[in-house]
Amino acid sequence: MARSKVMKVLTENPVWRSVFRHKMPSDDRNRVLVVLSNVFLHLHPTKVRKSGVRLSYTWCMGGLTFFIFLVESVTGILLMFYYRPTAEFAFEDIQALGAHVPLGIMRELHRWGAHAMVITVWLHMFRVFLTGSYKPPREFNWNVGVILLVLTLLLSFTGYLLPWDQLAMWAVTVGTNMARATPFLGNEGPGAALLAIGDTPLVHAGSDVRFALLGGRFVAAGALLRFYVLHCIAIPLAAAVLMAVHFWRVRKDGGISGPL
Amino acid sequence: METFKEIVNFLTNPKILLILSVVMFAAGLIFIRFFTKPIVAIAGAAASVVFFGLSMTDENFMLIVAKADNVPIVMMVVLVGFFTWLGMRRAVINDQLMEAGQETMERRETKQKVFVWPDLVYIEFLAIILCTVGLIIWSILLDAPLEEPANPTRTPNPSKAPWYFLGLQEMLVYYDPWIAGVLLPGLIIVGLMAVPYFDPNPKGNGYYTWKERKFAITTFLFGFLILWVTLIFIGTFLRGPNWNFFGLFERWDVAKLEALVNVDLSEYFWVIWLDGGRPTNPLLRELPGLIVTAGYLFLLPPILAKTVFRKFYAEMGPIRFNVMIFLFLMMASLPIKMALRWMFNLKYLVAFPEYFFNI
Ligand code: HEM
């Protein structure tokens, strides 16, 4: 009795009614309305196949990947308040974050979340493969997924440089050294020597793809700034757009896959 | 304890490890009904826990595992193991149901519809809560690493890429950077994107099954479990200073010298087999390797099309088949090159150091 009274006071007033346009979702009609009248829940259809909501079917890995992406966005924005992407300050700022914030775990949440997202996106792809969900009509969405997978790895990789410690600098050095060997476009790649005007080589250490990636010949201040911009703006933006496409296509392709 | 460690160190020597993982992979799929039984999985999990516990007593192992950035790798191995088991178990159950003429688990429930609110929303909510709690606990227990400030003049030994790229870094051992770092990663992406257009099999869409998709699942599992996850494991735990191979419990000795006995195919052919000298003309010198490579890439596909993959060829037509088989052979070339390296110390099949072009 007491509970329903509280509910009544809570829900039967103009403020509540202005936010929620439906009654409590305790009957079918309102269960539909709750999904239809909420922009976030509206990602979902109102009804789904029972086989598709099983945890043992989807492992909820796509959903968790998206959730961790949101966690990364929030914690990342908080980190940006304190971090300056220059060779002079980057390391100090990260160090200060650990030293001066009592019980601070934003950096930890962001870093472990990033690792977790890499794992969940692999597992998501794995389950999509095992259930044959890439087969018609979902071929295109699988492709969107592959690009999201690459973007997830690039997000993690560009973020790895930002603490500007030994771990960061050398992991990124190892990772970007390979770009040197790109056929034709890297200064040590096969065919690069062919690209020359007379005796002047077109592709050298100061003009190849690695240089473009790092903004210099080595992992230095230029690379830090480039990776920062890629990490905080370019890649998340691209990923967010593709996720919108991905989710929209899940619905357009007939919802979570099931036997035809 | 010492003998245990020595046995493990012996088993994690590259030759044995390569054979062992392929044998285990094959056994897992051949005896899939046995391995997907819950009791077998529990026994396997228990054995892994005991093994992990014992390993933690080893200081060299602890040095690697306790690195904060390596913790996710342990989680990844555990999760991949569990979900491989879960997926294959559901596949086996469905296969048995279909053999008995019954509907798969998915089909039984596919015509029933449930409301998103509350049936789906509450699962999502639960998953989010669990994930949040997990992340928070992880973050409280384990600090994010921060080493000394970046210093371009001091190269750490070994220098490792982030853990999820260690498979690519390991490929650098067997291939030139332009293949390992550019061509193969590119082909992995292209190959993944092409999967839906190559798989002509209409079965197994929207439910777990093993019997109806043996080739597709074997190929994917091999790529994911052996060529991706296992190589990451090797890169993390078995690759030490100077990128030398170390046993799981071996001390990372910077001074460890590995005899560089790797030889190119040209040396094998002209010097060892023909007992002569290597020709000075680079083209002639590399002819044997060029023939082998050309045979692998251009002769093998038509042979496969006429024999083992006859059915695929008929279903896919020449263009799709040839692109598929090219990607397949490129993927297969990695374990083949690893085997040639570890078994016969073969360095390059074709080597034109003059042009930065080695295969
Ligand atoms: C940032 C990365 C990604 C996010 C946030 C994401 C999210 C999702 C979500 C929420 C779903 C709904 C079903 C489920 O949870 O399993 C889904 C389905 C799907 N995803 Fe992803 N995904 C990502 C990456 C990928 C990748 C890497 C692939 C494959 C290469 C992929 C392929 C698909 C396909 C084909 C479906 C439809 C599956 C079905 O209908 O059963 N996605 N994704």
Give the arrangement of secondary structure elements.
The complex is a heterodimer of chains A (260) and B (359).
Chain A: H1 2-11, H2 14-19, H3 28-36, E1 47-49, H4 50-53, H5 55-58, H6 61-82, H7 90-100, H8 106-130, H9 139-161, H10 166-177, E2 196-197, E3 200-201, H11 209-214, H12 221-252
Antiparallel strand pairs in A: 2-3
Helix pairs in contact in A: 6-8, 8-9, 9-10, 9-12
Chain B: H1 2-11, H2 14-30, H3 32-35, H4 38-56, H5 59-65, H6 71-99, H7 105-110, E1 113-115, H8 116-141, H9 166-174, H10 177-198, H11 214-238, H12 265-273, H13 282-285, H14 287-306, H15 310-344, E2 351-352, E3 357-358
Antiparallel strand pairs in B: 2-3
Helix pairs in contact in B: 9-10, 9-11, 10-15, 14-15
Please outline the major beta sheet of chain A: 2 strands, antiparallel
Please identify the structural class of chain A as seen in this structure: mainly alpha
Distance between the termini of chain A: 48 Å
Ligands bound to this protein structure: protoporphyrin IX containing FE
In which range does the helix fraction of chain B lie? 55-70%
Q: Identify the strand order in the major beta sheet of chain B.
A: 2-3
**Distance separating the two termini of chain B:** 43 Å
CATH topology of the domain at 55-159 in chain A: Cytochrome Bc1 Complex, Chain C
Q: What's the helix count of chain A?
A: 12
What value does the average pLDDT of chain A take? 92
| Largest interface: chains, residues each | A-B, 98 and 94 residues
CATH superfamily of the domain at 55-159 in chain A: Cytochrome Bc1 Complex, Chain C
Strand content of chain B: under 5%
What is the H-and-E element order of chain A?
Answer: HHHEHHHHHHHEEHH
**Percentage of residues assigned to helices of chain A:** 55-70%
Q: Which architecture of the domain at 55-159 in chain A would the CATH scheme give at its second level? A: Up-down Bundle
Strand content of chain A: under 5%
Number of helices of chain B: 15
Query: How many strands of chain A?
Result: 3
What is the helix/strand order of chain B?
A: HHHHHHHEHHHHHHHHEE
Instruction: Catalogue the unreliable spans of chain A.
Output: none
